[in-house]
């Protein structure tokens, strides 16, 4: 295989080459490392490197899995024993993981060779990836813009064809937001579909989950087969799939009932190019034979207030655990201003306030369940503005008051499906006139990744994105 062809394959395709001995796992790793070395000075996507760990994986013998020999990076929030994990925070710059998380163990069992960690904002708090510790991760479509967040390093690496697939996680949109910003595919699974233990029972009150971003729909589906299922510490489990998720790719989705909106969650007008892209996608879906109508759910509570309260409490716990480990109070040399402000907000709130926010999340979930009783899929914009410029969201600013209003305009709708636990995905179906990707978000009923994967596969065939590559690309 000529290595110039590496970027033409998805992860399943590369694994097939290894299985047929057309290329070795070591050669694929060397190629991924060479691409990282060449592009990362521009992108800053892979911020922790442990190439030797990956080489030792290969020398020890890789498990026989669907991705055997495929190079891979974990997001810099998850643990892999003996490797550095910083959580994007200065205080953890030298932290070495004492054990491996369940999800990372399943990535290893799938045969992936893990040679580093992708950039995340501090504790994954922002929809942009610009930590003080590691610096900004730039968008391969335009280096002046953010790659999104919090899985911004993963999405940038995949978009630039450093890797065909990379670990990502999503507590309020952190798979779908960078997938939209970087022009790749990102599926947030149903709550409890994939494991998050053993260090967490629930992430962000049940909002957070882990999966991947990828170039192909196939990689996401095959990876979901490799990852899903409960672990001993799971507080609950997702409904079992009818068949392997991989078998949904290419399957006829049938005539789906699809509702759509071209305004924000709050009914506000959005960027005109993005609104036009939503309407164009609705026409495309209608042309494919689906029943399409314009309507949106009515929400009983403000999702921005709900997620702010839940995330603040969890951030406060993260700061407290750091203080317990250090044996001292943390300072602004340890954590960014936004992290400390969020933790301070949590300390001023009560347990009753937290329970009230959880109740509002459940009320939003119920209203969405009622809305989905009459439809199969809901289409809306993943982002309501083009990818932000580097520096627009400053987590070290003295005045943080502008962050919430900007988030309300930028990502008003992604967190809804973290609250409800429903699967949702971003597909790169449009681009702005300036060349930045526009992601379309599709949400399905609870437990119904199958319908989303069938629809994604249909749209991937109808409007392919694989060969559309950014200016910064291996």
From TrEMBL:
Function (record text): Hydrolyzes indole-3-acetamide (IAM) into indole-3-acetic acid (IAA).
Family to which the UniProt record says this protein belongs: Belongs to the amidase family.
Highest taxon above the source species: Bacteria
Protein name as it appears in the record: Indoleacetamide hydrolase
Pfam families: Amidase
Domain Amidase: 27-453
InterPro entries for the chain: Amidase, Amidase_CS, Amidase_dom, AS_sf
């Amino acid at each position: 295989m000529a290595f110039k062809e590496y970027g033409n394959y998805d992860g399943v395709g590369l694994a097939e080459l290894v299985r047929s001995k057309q290329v070795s796992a070591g050669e694929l790793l060397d190629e991924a490392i060479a691409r990282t070395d060449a592009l990362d000075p521009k992108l800053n996507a892979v911020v922790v490197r442990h190439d030797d760990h990956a080489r030792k994986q290969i020398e020890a013998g890789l498990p026989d899995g669907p991705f055997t020999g495929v190079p891979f990076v974990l997001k810099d929030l998850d643990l892999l024993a003996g490797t550095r994990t910083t959580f994007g925070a200065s205080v953890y710059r030298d932290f070495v993981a004492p054990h491996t998380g369940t999800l990372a163990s399943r990535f290893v069992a799938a045969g992936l060779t893990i040679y580093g960690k992708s950039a995340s904002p501090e504790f994954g708090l922002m929809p942009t990836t610009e930590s003080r510790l590691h610096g900004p991760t730039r968008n391969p479509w335009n280096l002046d813009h953010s790659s999104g967040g919090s899985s911004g390093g993963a999405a940038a690496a995949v978009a630039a064809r450093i890797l065909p697939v990379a670990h990502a996680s999503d507590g309020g949109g952190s798979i779908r937001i960078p997938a939209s910003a970087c022009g790749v595919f990102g599926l947030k699974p149903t709550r409890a579909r994939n494991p998050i233990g053993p260090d967490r029972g629930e992430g962000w009150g049940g909002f957070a989950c882990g999966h991947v971003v990828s170039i192909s729909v196939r990689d996401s589906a095959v990876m979901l087969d490799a990852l899903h299922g409960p672990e001993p510490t799971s507080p609950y489990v997702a409904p079992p799939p009818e068949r392997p998720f991989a078998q949904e790719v290419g399957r006829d989705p049938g005539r789906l009932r699809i509702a759509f909106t071209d305004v924000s969650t709050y009914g506000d007008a959005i960027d005109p190019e993005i609104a036009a892209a939503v309407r164009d996608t609705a026409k495309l879906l209608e042309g494919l034979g689906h029943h399409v109508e314009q309507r949106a759910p009515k929400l009983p509570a403000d999702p921005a207030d709900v997620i702010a309260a839940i995330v603040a409490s969890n951030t406060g716990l993260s700061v407290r655990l750091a203080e317990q480990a250090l044996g001292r109070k943390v300072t602004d040399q340890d954590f960014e201003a936004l992290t400390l402000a969020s933790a301070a907000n949590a300390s001023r709130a009560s347990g009753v306030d937290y329970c009230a926010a959880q109740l509002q999340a459940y009320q939003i979930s119920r209203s969405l369940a009622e809305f989905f009783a009459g439809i199969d899929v809901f289409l809306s914009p993943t982002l309501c503005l083009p990818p932000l410029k580097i520096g627009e969201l400053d987590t070290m600013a003295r005045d943080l008051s502008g962050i919430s209003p900007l988030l309300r305009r930028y990502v008003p709708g992604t967190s809804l499906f973290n609250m409800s636990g429903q699967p949702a995905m971003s597909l790169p179906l449009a681009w702005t006139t300036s060349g930045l990707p526009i992601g379309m978000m599709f949400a399905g009923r609870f437990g119904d990744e199958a319908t989303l994967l069938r629809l994604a596969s249909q749209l991937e065939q109808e409007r392919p994105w694989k060969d559309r590559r950014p200016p910064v690309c291996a």
